[in-house]
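Action item from last meeting closed. Structure (144 res):
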């Protein structure tokens, strides 16, 4: 089986994501959209709006994948993308991890080294997709 775990938030609706999944001929796909919220909302446990927004993006992504003939499941995950991946891997033993981010300079995940930390932490091949909506560009980042 070729199981792919995808961690993506605002970039979850990427067209490149569907192409990457199709190219890998995944037998199972799990999309996790972390529920990102501001620090104050997180500290006060007021994450309802963040969860609802992530759920809506996830639903649109799953619909787009299904329309492309790619069956996938999804869930809203922890605000920390690495924790969201760890939680998902407990129930979905993936062979590969796809992380979709905004480009350098706009991505909090890249600023925090999420892609490299995922490579070290999980010991899985990690594919990094970059979605630059402003430039209307999506591309595969070079592997480290």
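Sequence:
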């Amino acid at each position: 089986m070729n199981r792919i775990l995808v961690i993506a938030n605002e970039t979850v609706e990427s067209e490149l994501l569907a192409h990457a999944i199709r190219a890998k001929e995944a037998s199972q796909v799990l999309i996790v959209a972390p529920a990102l919220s501001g620090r104050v909302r997180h500290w006060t446990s007021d994450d309802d709006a963040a969860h609802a927004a992530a759920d809506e993006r996830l639903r649109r992504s799953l619909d787009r994948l299904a329309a492309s003939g790619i069956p996938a499941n999804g869930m809203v995950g922890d605000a920390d993308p690495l924790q969201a991946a760890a939680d998902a891997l407990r129930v979905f033993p993936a062979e590969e991890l796809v992380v979709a981010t905004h480009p350098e300079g706009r991505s909090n995940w890249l600023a925090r080294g999420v892609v490299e930390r995922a490579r070290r932490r999980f010991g899985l091949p990690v594919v990094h997709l970059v979605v630059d909506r402003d430039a209307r560009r999506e591309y595969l980042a070079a592997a480290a």
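Note appended to the action item: The CA atoms of residues 22 and 70 lie 7 Å apart.
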